[in-house]
Write a structure and sequence with these properties.
It is a single chain. The chain is built from six helices and 16 strands. It is an alpha/beta fold. The strands form four sheets. Strands 3, 4, 5, 6, 8, 10, 12, 15 and 16 form a nine-stranded mixed sheet that branches. Helix 4 packs parallel to helix 5. The protein starts with a helix and ends in a 6-residue tail after the last strand. About 9% of the residues have low confidence.
């Protein structure tokens, strides 16, 4: 019995040694990982996507409220930059506004180009898209096609073939108060596309609708010849071309 108890104590000592060895090895790996993390150089930030705050560190501008804001970036024409320049009044002030702002989260992004702007051309239709096809078959010259589809979610007014046609013909983007389809393929095309959703069913072709008339949705009015600015933050509309 005494020998058995001694063997049991020896086994217990071996188990403790192995456990301690494992703990020391785990601790060594953790310390090694932390050392590598601390020694790794900070990843460089792509110049095309430098944040507004980073730009303001070296050349910030002051406003009347005493807060230093980063300067706008004229190259990207982001909606946030445009708002900083052209909507300077407090949001709760009742004053005339030079720029209209669409309702937030009204649209979803599907095109491969997430920031786009240009003169407006419009189509007004309902569950029929002949004028959409005709418009995108024209030379876009950097324009944005704005389609008021009445907010229908029963079919798609835009598919991959029409989106590709618009991209080839130089349209900057397409904004639709309606749905698109082939969204995965559209996401690989160099054109901006904002719609209220997707639907796999194509539209009808019987009723052409109207071309280049004023249309209103998302809380703003889109006029042919006016300018629209869009990115993932939202959509802005101005009667004149903006600069920042």
């Amino acid at each position: 019995r005494e020998r058995e108890r001694e063997r049991e104590r020896e086994r217990e000592r071996e188990r403790k040694k192995k456990k301690k060895k494992k703990m020391l090895a785990r601790l060594a790996r953790q310390l090694h990982s932390r050392a590598l993390l601390n020694a790794a150089p900070a990843p460089s930030r792509p110049t095309a996507f430098v944040s507004r705050v980073s730009r303001g560190v070296s050349r910030g501008v002051s406003s009347g409220d005493g807060i230093e804001y980063p300067p706008p970036d004229a190259d990207r024409m982001g909606t946030a930059d445009i708002c900083d320049v052209h909507l300077p009044d407090p949001v709760d002030a009742t004053v005339p506004r030079a720029v209209q702002v669409c309702e937030p989260n009204f649209f979803k992004d599907f095109g491969g180009r997430r920031r786009f702007h240009g003169p407006i051309s419009t189509v007004k239709c309902f569950e029929n898209n002949p004028h959409v096809r005709a418009a995108l078959g024209e030379q876009g010259n950097g324009r944005v096609l704005v389609v008021d589809g009445g907010g229908s979610k029963r079919c798609a007014l835009l598919g991959d073939m029409l989106a590709e046609l618009g991209a080839k013909n130089g349209w900057s983007g397409i904004i639709i108060n309606g749905c698109c389809r082939d969204s995965e393929d559209i996401g690989r095309m160099d054109i901006g596309v904002k719609t209220i959703g997707t639907h796999p069913l194509k539209s009808s072709k019987r009723d052409k609708g109207l071309r280049d008339v004023e249309v209103s949705f998302a809380g703003v009015t889109f006029k042919p010849g006016a300018y629209v600015y869009a990115d993932m933050d939202g959509v802005l509309v101005s009667d004149t071309k903006l600069s920042i």
